[in-house]
Amino acid sequence: MATIQWFPGHMAKAKKQVQENLHLVDIVLEIVDARLPLSSRNPILDQIIQQKPRLMILNKADLADPTLNNAWINYFKQHDLPAISIDSQHNHNVQQIEKQAQVILADKIARQQARGIKNKPIRAICIGIPNVGKSTILNRLVKRNIAITGNHPGVTKKQQWLKAGKRLELLDTPGILWPKFEDVLVGKKLALTGAIKDSLFHADDVALYELAFFKQYFPERLQKRYSLTIDDLKLNDPDLLMKLTAGFGLREDYERASERLILDCRKGKLGRYTLDQIDEATHD
Ligand SMILES: Nc1nc2c(ncn2[C@@H]2O[C@H](COP(=O)(O)OP(=O)(O)OP(=O)(O)O)[C@@H](O)[C@H]2O)c(=O)[nH]1
Ligand SMILES: [Mg+2]
Fold first, then answer.
1. What is the CATH number of the domain that holds 142?
2. Does ligand 1 have an atom closer than 6 angstroms to the CB of 14?
3. Do both 230 and 127 map to the same domain?
4. Spatial CA neighbour of 81 closest among 19, 27, 21, 26
């Protein structure tokens, strides 16, 4: 159950594994976390898969802001990337994957039928950074637990072909690619949602980002959850963290208070949220 740490050697290997499997498939299912439709994308996926047909899947839609789920789907569609949002944990919308794949590949299927090839299964590969829910999606599609899942990055180890519907076959791939590490903000977003290992960042950095985000977008949720006053919300982020730490009875243990705040956010105690805003896309 060791967690992947992305050293250059691992990145090269992961890239090679995806490239080796690409020619086997008709379509790539790019899985992202709906809370991070940009930040949970792999930076070089476009370059790796090039012109291969693709379906963007915004998974964990149940945790993300419903309005922004739709906004992001529209955003991707405007950029010629067909996209759907699903909640694989509760099996919501998962069947759309096969349907959408058929739509995207309609021309190819029609050409096959014209040549007398009927009902050939569509072959697909799931690709995404750790912990976005690739294995959970596969388990839903094959309707039994084949792929190992776990709430920490790097669980899937080896690949296998799976019958995943009437006309869909999937590779349970370690088509795991690395997240973007270079950008500090992206790193904090990934850390807050649990996409990267806790030992790779400082909890207080991430909790301060969390407080800033919720103060900006959902101050009333912070207020309610932690019994804060309007004045408390006017505190700067470090002072607010100090205040909360004291309120938790943790004296000056900002580390533990931060971990608690992060956990609350991950567990949905602060409601549904999407960390990536549409206007951030233009700066990418
Ligand atoms: N709320 C919610 N949780 C989900 C959803 N999909 C997956 N999860 C949870 O997210 C965690 C990671 O899921 P996995 O399927 O193991 O993710 P993965 O992409 O295969 O991860 P690696 O194998 O580490 O790359 C698990 O705890 C899942 O239960 C979803 O749609 N909604
Ligand atoms: Mg997995």
1. 3.40.50.300
2. no
3. no
4. 27
Q: What is the pTM of this model?
A: 0.92
Least confident of 83-97, 108-122, 158-172, 210-224: 158-172
Ligand 1 geometric centre to CA of 258 (Å): 23
pLDDT in tens, 232-245: 999 999 999 999 99
Residues 6+ apart with CB under 8 A from 92: 61, 62, 86
Q: Is 207 left (phi over 0), alpha (psi -120 to 50) or beta?
A: alpha
Q: What is the pLDDT of residue 75?
A: 98
Give the nearest ligand 1 atom to 138 CA: 15
Distance (angstroms) between ligand 2 centre and the Cα of 125 equals 13
Q: Given this model, what pLDDT does residue 2 score? A: 42
Q: Which atom of ligand 1 is nearest to the CA of 154?
A: 24
Residues lining ligand 2 (ion), CB within 5 A?
134-135, 155-156
In which domain, by residue range, is 223 found?
Answer: 202-269
Lowest-pLDDT choice from 11-20, 68-77, 104-113, 214-223: 11-20
Residues 108 and 151 in one domain: yes
**Model pLDDT, residue 196:** 87
- Tokens standing for residue 273: 């949220």
Residue 127, ligand 1, Cβ within 6 A: no
Is 116 inside any structural domain? yes
Ligand 1 site, residue 64, Cβ cutoff 6 A = no
